[in-house]
């Protein structure tokens, strides 16, 4: 039987996850979606849409969607849903898991890799994060959970952008890109988002093409890269990248938005020489043992010794996987490109180890 695609929907409190979900659930898109909520918060969807009070915590809706709140663990609920689908008791095509406002999506994502029963029936498609533009600066400054949600995302929607000025939205996007260069970002107005921007994003599909914002990857100091006129040094005010400013809620409204020193950061590693598969595996294995809890997402397209095909690899926390991708094109530059997103990761240690794993 085909795997059931699953989407994890996460986001700041008040960012409009429920509005987005309601739209997804009530829109006539013809898809049958099961929504799993692992929260009992003020924003519960059921008191709005679902008035049915049943002992069975799975409620079938008029348009064929199903809602259930998790009273036990996620694994058991997913297994239960899949079993009912197999028996023909429930009809749904995909699952959306809504996490609580401040939940770390990591453990939810890991469920899909660690638990055999879940992994045999579901395909984790993507983590979608909603960021509330009005309260983002404060939440990102004060709550590591909010920063983690950004780091984990495959797709970011910025809600309530109409409530703040364009400059503030730009500053927010700039800040989010530093934390996560992989995730496309769009503004979403009252949950008005096309279904195709939420589903089948293939964020966890190892064969997916690796999307990293090309502008973000300009070498070095992309903020001041104005045609390399190194005659006068205009880099000096940026080199510390805000080390002197990490007080919670220390806000700068003076265009110096890139001085936030968030603990969730990303960096990119590239190399032209091929990796030695054994050395790379040893090094990555050792790194995830030590830094796994702080490694949110990491992905790469690798140029490996011994194969004519690209090797695609990715991971969440301690769990990683790799896969053979398409062959390198005859004129294509063979290069490894990896992006790491994590909490205060030791960039120097990672770069040194990766360099030593090259042939």
Automatic annotation (TrEMBL):
CDD domains associated with the record: CobW-like
Report the residue ranges that make up the CobW C-terminal domain in this protein: 264-358
**Catalytic reaction list:** GTP + H2O = GDP + phosphate + H(+)
Q: Which UniProt keywords apply?
A: Chaperone, Hydrolase, Nucleotide-binding
The record ties this protein, via SMART domains, to: CobW_C
Q: Which GO terms describe its molecular function?
A: hydrolase activity; nucleotide binding
**Does the keyword field hold Iron-sulfur?**
no
Task: Please name the Gene3D superfamilies in this protein's record.
Answer: CobW-like, C-terminal domain (3.30.1220.10), P-loop containing nucleotide triphosphate hydrolases (3.40.50.300)
Query: Could you tell me where the Basic residues compositional bias lies?
Result: 247-259
Respond yes or no to whether keyword GTP-binding is given for this record. Answer: no
Reported function: Zinc chaperone that directly transfers zinc cofactor to target proteins, thereby activating them. Zinc is transferred from the CXCC motif in the GTPase domain to the zinc binding site in target proteins in a process requiring GTP hydrolysis.
Give the family from UniProt: Belongs to the SIMIBI class G3E GTPase family. ZNG1 subfamily.
By what name is this protein known? GTP-binding protein
């Amino acid at each position: 039987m085909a795997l059931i695609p699953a989407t994890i929907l996460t986001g700041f409190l008040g960012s409009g996850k429920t509005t987005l979900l309601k739209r997804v659930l009530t829109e006539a898109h013809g898809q049958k979606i099961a929504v799993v909520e692992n929260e009992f918060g003020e924003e519960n969807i059921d008191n709005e849409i679902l008035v049915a009070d049943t002992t069975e915590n799975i409620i079938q809706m008029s348009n064929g969607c199903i809602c259930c709140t998790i009273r036990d663990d996620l694994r058991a609920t997913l297994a239960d849903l899949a079993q009912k689908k197999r028996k023909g008791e429930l009809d749904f095509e995909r699952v959306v898991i809504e996490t609580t406002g401040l939940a770390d999506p990591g453990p939810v994502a890991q469920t899909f890799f660690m638990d055999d029963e879940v992994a045999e029936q579901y395909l984790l498609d993507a983590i979608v994060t909603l960021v509330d533009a009005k309260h983002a600066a404060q939440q990102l400054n004060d709550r590591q959970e909010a920063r983690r949600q950004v780091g984990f995302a495959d797709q970011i929607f910025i809600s309530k952008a109409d409530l703040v000025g364009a400059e503030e939205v730009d500053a927010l996007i700039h800040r989010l890109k530093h934390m996560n260069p992989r995730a496309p970002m769009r503004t979403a107005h009252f949950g008005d988002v096309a279904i195709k921007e939420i589903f089948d994003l293939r964020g966890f599909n190892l064969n997916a093409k690796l999307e990293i914002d090309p502008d973000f990857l300009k070498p070095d100091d992309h903020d001041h890269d104005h045609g390399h006129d190194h005659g006068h040094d205009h880099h000096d005010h940026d080199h510390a990248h805000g080390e002197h400013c990490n007080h919670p809620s220390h806000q700068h409204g003076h265009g110096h938005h890139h001085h936030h020193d968030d603990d969730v950061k990303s960096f990119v590693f590239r190399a032209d020489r091929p990796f030695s598969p054994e050395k790379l595996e040893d090094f990555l294995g050792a790194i995830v043992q030590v830094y796994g809890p702080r490694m949110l997402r990491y992905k790469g397209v690798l140029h490996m010794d011994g194969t004519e095909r690209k090797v695609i690899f990715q991971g969440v926390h301690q769990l990683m996987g790799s896969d053979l991708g398409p062959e390198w094109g005859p004129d294509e530059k063979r290069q490894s490109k990896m992006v790491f997103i994590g909490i205060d990761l030791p960039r120097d240690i990672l770069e040194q180890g990766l360099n030593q794993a090259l042939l």
